[in-house]
Amino acid sequence: MLPITKHHGIVIPLDRANVDTDAIIPKQFLKSIKKSGFGPNLFDEWRYLDHGEPGINPENRELNPDFILNKQNYREGTILLARENFGCGSSREHAPWALLDFGIRIILAPSFADIFYGNCFKNGILPIQIDDELTDLFFKKALSEMGLNLTIDLEKQLIIDDDDEYDFKVDEFKKNCLLKGLDDIGLTLEYGEDIKDFEKHYYSQYPWLTK
After folding, report:
1. Distances (CA, A) of 71 to 17, 64, 126
2. Residue 139: partners with Cβ closer than 8 Å, 6 or more residues away
3. Which of 14, 21, 20 is nearest to 38 (CA)?
4. Does residue 1 lie in a domain region?
5. Model pTM?
6. In what order do the strands lie in the sheet with 106-109?
7. Are residues 52 and 129 in the same domain?
8. What are phi and psi of 32, to 5 degrees?
9. pLDDT digits (tens, 9 = 90+) for 141-187
10. CA separation (Å) from 9 to 106, 177, 181?
11. In this structure, are 22 and 74 located in the same domain?
12. Which of 138, 185, 145, 189 is closest to 164 using CA atoms?
């Protein structure tokens, strides 16, 4: 998992509340358990004018010109700005996979669905809860002709907008995992030697279990 320490990127203003995981990655694309390849189908039903199915080349599909991801100013964006209750609905882990595969590393919103929020940390995405006033300010800037670029300093827990800085809260354990790039497997492997020592001691006491 790629770590996050300090991230600078273009903000994509997705001005919608209650965005559920089926909107993030529709159910027909859940046939793979690989973590890659979902980016082209992120927000599929909003992003394209036709109905998408696995195996269809996205380059041959008609884009919805009104959808924010298809606008030239935001195509290289890596910070997603949304309204409240982002990631609600089913618990599919494919949702953060699709966001990450597209290039999203940071999500800013007033609130998140609990399971989606936890899944983001496990897949290298930093979800940051911001208040309604700051959300409105960022939307106003991001939707302006100039757009909005932000720097996220995870170590200092700061959102930096030119000369303005806004602090944010994050669980210390989740923060350390992101800083080190540790998912659940990587976190377990940090205790590899301890696990080997335990197994050696355990099977010396119960040798018949190895037969």
Report:
1. 20, 9, 24
2. 13, 15, 81
3. 21
4. no
5. 0.89
6. 126-129, 106-109, 79-81, 6-13, 149-153, 158-161, 164-167
7. yes
8. -110, 145
9. 999 999 999 999 999 999 999 989 999 999 999 999 999 998 776 66
10. 9, 21, 19
11. yes
12. 138
Per the structure block, which two tokens stand in for 62? 């008609």
Mention every residue, 6+ apart, whose C-beta is less than 8 A from residue 38.
Answer: 25, 29, 32, 94, 97, 98, 101
Rounded Cα–Cα distance for residues 198 and 206 (Å) = 12
- Beta-sheet pairing, 79-81 with 106-109: parallel
Task: Give the pLDDT confidence of 79-138 residue by residue, as tens digits.
Answer: 999 999 999 998 889 999 999 999 999 999 999 999 999 999 999 999 999 999 999 999
Kindly state the DSSP code that residue 83 receives in the 8-state scheme. -
CB 123 within 8 Å of CB 2: no
Distance from C-alpha of 168 to C-alpha of 131, rounded to nearest angstrom: 10
Give φ, ψ of 119 to 5 degrees.
-65, -30
- What is the CATH classification number for the domain harbouring 105? 3.20.19.10
Q: Which domain holds residue 202?
A: 182-211
